[in-house]
Design a protein that fits this description.
Helix content: under 10%
Radius of gyration: 22 Å
Structural class: mainly beta
Number of helices: 4
Shape: globular
């Protein structure tokens, strides 16, 4: 008779409180939002976990935090300490390699022309690897219809005297109730996505210029030249949306374009990036690489490459790493 729980009016000391089970829920379950009270939605929407494009899997001791045409950023161990290994592509194919101590145990990072930004859960750091501001090429931006916005951002940056890269590295800590979910570094600053649905924009000298609110759940943020693109999911429908923007030295944000990603039902986002013409490109879990093409009246999405047709697929997952 001691084995029966009964009608629930009495419980023994060996019966756990049901609230303890909530503490053991994994992050994926916690990101399932029941949206019945939000704008009349009744379905439970599973939201994708945030990720860093071009980063290799988290479970490896030595892994890439970033890899692009500028070079690579790797975190690993040296003499028992965590270090960054930075390789920048130089002229004529020459590479410049630097080893920097990862004293803040950063787990995500992003390369730009002047150095790299990295972040742990509660802080953001910037390390300088180049010493002088380089002129941006606006011809590619003009092809994407963004030259006016980018030129204005660059002009204001130069007028403010912020066209030089910092002479020293900097660290910025987030408030206690806020965590870093993702970041991207550009030639004009660092964009940090946080758990409070904020985008915090820092200049290359570490000054916070502006804070933007994201109208959804952060998925990833990418950058190139003076432009940033934030990709997020709507909490009600789970639809993927994005907006491309620039931030002037004065703190004024300018939205260049926005819209929805052409992903199918049940499809997740594997990669996002910007071309040299600042056109947004995305790769979905079904293996199709799509690029947004500006038209005279509207933008269209064009299929560029079907990874599902390439050899090397394993267990339904893509065996290729986008850069």
């Amino acid at each position: 008779d001691g084995d029966d729980v009964g009608d629930g009016s009495e419980q023994g000391d060996d019966v756990e409180d049901i609230e303890d089970e909530d503490d053991d829920e994994d992050e994926a379950k916690r990101r399932v939002r029941k949206t019945k009270s939000q704008r009349g939605c009744t379905a439970a929407v599973r939201l994708q976990e945030p990720f860093q494009p071009n980063a290799s899997p988290m479970e490896r001791q030595r892994r890439f935090l970033a890899f692009n045409e500028l070079g690579s950023l790797v975190v690993g161990e040296q003499d028992g300490e965590s270090v960054f290994v930075v390789e920048h592509e130089g002229t004529g194919g020459a590479q410049r390699r630097q080893i920097i101590n990862n004293s803040h145990n950063c787990t995500m990072g992003s390369l730009c022309k002047f150095g790299f930004a990295a972040a742990s859960r509660d802080c953001v750091v910037f390390h300088t690897t180049h010493t002088r501001h380089q002129q941006h090429t606006t011809a590619a931006a003009a092809a994407a219809g963004l030259s006016a916005a980018l030129t204005e951002a660059q002009q204001r940056q130069q007028e403010s005297g912020d066209d030089d890269t910092p002479v020293c590295d900097w660290v910025r800590e987030l408030p206690e109730d806020e965590a870093v979910l993702g970041l991207a570094a550009s030639s004009t600053g660092v964009c940090v996505a946080t758990s409070r649905a904020f985008l915090r924009l820092f200049s290359l000298t570490g000054m916070q210029r502006v804070v933007l609110a994201v109208p959804g759940s952060h998925v990833c943020v990418v950058a190139r030249d003076a432009a940033f693109v934030e990709v997020y999911q709507e909490a009600c429908t789970g639809a993927y949306r994005f907006f491309c923007f620039t931030v002037a030295a004065s703190g004024t944000a300018h939205v260049c374009y926005d819209g929805s990603l052409p992903l199918g039902a049940g499809e997740s986002l594997l990669w996002a990036g910007l071309s040299d013409a600042l056109a947004l490109a995305v790769l979905g879990s079904r293996g199709m690489l799509l690029m947004r093409i500006e038209g005279s009246k509207a933008a269209l999405w064009m299929p560029m490459l079907d990874f599902a047709q390439l050899a090397g697929r394993k267990r339904g997952a893509l065996a290729h790493w986008m850069v």
